[in-house]
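INFO  loader      accepted 1 record
INFO  loader      residues=343
INFO  predictor   begin
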Amino acid sequence: MPNLKSMGLGNIGEIIGVDPVSFPTASYGKLAEASKGKDSTTGHWELGGIKVDTDFSYYPTGFPRDLLERFLDLTGCKGYLGNKAASGTEIIKELGDDHLRTKFPILYTSADSVFQIAAHEDVIPLEKLYEICRITREQVLDFPHIIGRVIARPFAGKTGEFKRTTNRRDFSLDPPAATILDFLYDAKIPTISVGKISELFNHRGISKKETSKSNAEGCNILLRLAETEKNSLVFVNLVDFDVYFGHRNDPKGFADALKYFDNFLPKFLEKIDETDAVIITADHGNDPTTPSTDHSREYVPVLFYQQGKFGKNLGTRKTFSDVGRTVADFFKVQTDLCGTSFL
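INFO  predictor   done
INFO  writer      dumping tokens
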């Protein structure tokens, strides 16, 4: 990855194939997670400048009976299928025909704190599926079942050809405190989300939402926004690393995605001028080479780029919140966020 190498990725620690350089073009370091969880929601909230003191609920063996009975009672569903941790593509292969026959929604979870509801769009129409998810979010899930996201997972097609559609919708919790997005939004500084960012913050503090379904689409949107937006925060999540390669233990796919991003970087950085700053980091680990398909709790890399400035060693930071604090410092916005700015 020659472009990430030149930015100083290999200066953070020993990375096979990415050597350290004498004059990195970005400042470099690594962030420790201060919050208790290791899920996407917790990671993004901490990047946004808050510490999440409580972990979410996880259900590796399926949801408990009392929760499911409450789900049936409040949503009006006559039954359910699934109730286990599973890949979304695999569970519709397994239970899609049963779903067509019974018209019961398919319930499943993952390594994340999620309550996922899959349904064929011809069996449970989209608006009905969204209503079921909304009721689940607002009425079914309460203490001690603190779940980060309820996710509508619609699919289409016929037996043997079931495919998820692009009509996914997330129903999230509000962050427990104001994040960098809230502070910028209140200061009339535009905040633009790309990918699942808006859903992870439950749409709070977002001026404009750009949807993307892949790394490539997210990168293309970022190129466009780099030309059109000024004095704005653009917050991008590239989902392929996690969804398609980390959780599926596919190191080859992960490597190819990293190379794609590395090849994209020069096209993006040539659009950056001296008024801009770029932060590249992650919300959790997701090692595709371990037996587990779960997220991994480990340091995440951080690169901080400003045109024409050589990088410095940012060291090992105590919290992801240093990112949110740095953004506040860059925009000169007063906040009570956690963390220490590295600007």
